[in-house]
Write a sequence for this structure.
């Protein structure tokens, strides 16, 4: 099964917003992360953990606390490869790209929910 078959819509915001604004968006949308864009390119990712860790500085710009080295995956990769990439980088969220553009996000929860579709060789290596 391919990543694009189980991915979710990614919510992206510009890098100038504050942590408070990011928290409000995440709360309203009931999501755990936002993709940060700068000039239509992925500049980072911010998670609920980042917001909690910086709650005393809620008016800071998200660009000052976001994770900047964002691992991504192509939309037509297998979910096996997505799981390996997440495990290898110790991450829970993976932005999905098509032709270099953000088209979605896949999470560890998505992988677990679809674990019956993982290659048996992957599960028992």
């Amino acid at each position: 099964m391919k990543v694009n078959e189980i991915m979710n819509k990614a919510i992206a915001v510009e890098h100038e917003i504050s942590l408070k604004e990011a928290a409000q968006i995440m709360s309203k949308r009931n999501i755990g992360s936002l993709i940060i864009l700068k000039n239509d390119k992925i500049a980072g990712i911010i998670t609920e953990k980042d917001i909690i860790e910086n709650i005393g500085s809620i008016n800071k710009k998200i660009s000052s606390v976001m994770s900047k080295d964002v691992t991504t995956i192509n939309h037509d990769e297998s979910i096996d490869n997505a799981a390996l990439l997440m495990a290898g980088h110790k991450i829970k969220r993976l932005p999905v790209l098509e032709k270099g553009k953000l088209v979605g996000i896949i999470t560890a929860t998505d992988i677990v929910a679809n674990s019956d579709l993982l290659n048996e060789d992957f599960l028992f290596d």
Strands lie at 12-14, 33-38, 41-47, 73-74, 93-98, 101-107. The chain has five helices and six strands.
